[in-house]
Design brief:
The protein is of the alpha/beta class. Helix content is about 60%, strand content about 10%.
Length: about 270
């Protein structure tokens, strides 16, 4: 039996090549090269939802999920920073219930910085960021009560959600709020699709935060990963063709196809 480590070098080459492409795109973005990312419909809805809240004079709700501090929470706070800058310009009242103490501390600074960046630090209300509970359903009931009492006009839910996602989305739907949600939890996406106006799915979650923040490192990383996906897709297509040629024993090409298949085969 051939050990896996004996055949690891083709995979290692692919990993190094992909990493090189990502670093290349990051450096290009940091040097000012424009990176194209297609517009996601859910992003247009963010401005629409904030405008609706402004017209109605009702608050904007932002929920960063119940997950701890990590890359998903950072992505959510990046999106909320963009929303907070818009609400600072228009004078909207915001509400951000939080379930994690670390996320609470960072969220307070992110929102405060957003108001300062827009030149309206006096409009920032520290009470708008609220730690409710680190217990899942205690937090869920607290958020649902907040939505009902404050009659929020717009609800944004980005982050890590579990069984409480439908409680948030259904309650917001009952109050007539326009809702935009995004999560990496595939088990919760159907609930958001059913109850929200717009849902950002899967990779779009990371693409959205990169697009909104316009951070060169995030944009370059995103585009570099897309190149990596194209490379892997091309490899799969070539591998399928090589396996087919080897199986059909096509003259002149069967040996080359078999060599390519053996290159990545682990017995």
């Amino acid at each position: 039996m051939q050990h896996a480590f004996e055949k690891i070098w083709p995979v290692l080459i692919m990993e190094v090549l992909t990493a090189t492409i990502i670093i290349w795109r990051i450096l290009s973005a940091q040097r000012g090269k424009e990176m194209f990312i297609r517009r996601i419909p859910g992003l247009n809805a963010i401005d629409e939802a904030i405008g609706r809240a402004t017209e109605m004079g009702r608050p904007v709700l932002m929920v960063p999920g119940i997950g701890g501090f990590g890359i998903i929470a950072l992505q959510a706070l990046s999106i909320f920073s963009y929303i907070a800058r818009s609400t600072a310009r228009f004078g909207n009242r915001i509400l951000m219930p939080v379930a994690d103490p670390t996320v609470y501390t960072v969220a307070e600074e992110v929102i405060r910085d957003a108001y300062q960046a827009e030149g309206h630090p006096e409009r920032f209300d520290p009470d708008s960021i609220r730690f409710l509970s680190d217990r899942q359903f205690a937090f869920a009931s607290g958020v649902a009560g907040l939505i009902q009492r404050e009659k929020v006009a717009s609800s944004f839910m980005f982050g890590e959600f579990f069984a409480e996602s439908l409680i948030f989305a259904e309650t917001g739907n009952m109050t007539g709020a326009i809702q935009v949600a995004g999560t990496t939890q595939t088990t919760q996406i159907p609930f958001f699709i059913a109850a929200c106006d717009y849902t950002i799915i899967g990779d779009e979650y990371y693409a959205a935060s990169a697009y909104i923040s316009r951070n060169p490192t995030m944009l370059g990383s995103l585009v570099g990963q897309d190149f990596g996906k194209l490379l892997i897709t091309a490899l799969c297509v070539v591998g399928s063709m090589a396996a087919t040629l080897a199986a059909l024993k096509v003259p002149m090409l069967a040996d080359a196809g078999q060599w390519f298949v053996d290159l990545f085969r682990i017995r």
